[in-house]
Amino acid sequence: MALLGYARVSTPDQSLEPQLDALRTAGCSVIFQDHGVSGGSTSRSGLDKLMHTLETGDTLVVWRLDRLGRSIRHLLEVVGVFRDRGIELRSLTENIDTSSASGRMVLHVMAAVAEFERALVSERTIAGLKAARARGKRPGRQRSLTDDQCADALRALREGATEDALAAHYNVHRRTLQRAIHRLRAARHQQAT
Q: For labeling, which of 98, 115, 123, 176 is most exposed (least CB within 10 Å)?
């Protein structure tokens, strides 16, 4: 019966240290890690190794529940697998321990609230994007080349300039230039038809 820890951060510039410190303080003998891996990833090497290491009677300790599951459904599936294998789960931040009935109930309630919160954020984001489009805004990253620059680049290509030279001139990658010119040609073709 071992206490095993799992820590994860989504981006390479985030630090695992706060999680690792908390897991060590909780008494974890081994800590599995995923650094720079999104919770949405279906394959996480640290989590995969952990799942193969856990044995009946072990307890998995996480700093927060969202470090373990990529969604509420996934988290509950993992907890179900743990239950079937006789493995307990403890979350330090939420103070949840599935070794008790109240801990299992709190886990399910918190999972439902978290799912609800994510759905609200998604709905607000979609509504904001629709409102921006209705006002004539184009949300998202701005294009690297304007329509005028694309037209100039297309003329230069016809006159013998190379894509590499034009990409360097506009300070963009050659593939960015190719996509911009392709977009311009498609727009002109659509206007012609």
A: 123
Which CATH code is given to the segment(s) 3-100? 3.40.50.1390
Contacts of 60 (CB under 8 A, 6+ apart): 4, 5, 6, 50, 54, 68, 82, 87, 88, 89, 90
Q: How far is CA 71 from CA 58, 67, 119, in A?
A: 23, 10, 11
Helical axes 163-170 vs 147-158, angle rounded to 10°: 150
Q: Which two tokens stand for residue 115?
A: 């799912």
H/E element holding 61? strand 59-62
Distance from C-alpha of 47 to C-alpha of 70, rounded to nearest angstrom? 11
Please give the model's pTM, rounded to 2 decimal places.
0.56
Marked catalytic residue, from 10, 29, 91, 99: 10
Q: In the chain, where are the structural domains located?
A: 3-100, 147-192
Model pLDDT for residues 101-110, shown as the tens digit of each residue:
888 888 778 7
Given this model, what pLDDT does residue 39 score? 63
Short-list 35, 118, 36, CA closest to 75: 118
* Residue 10 appears among annotated catalytic residues: yes
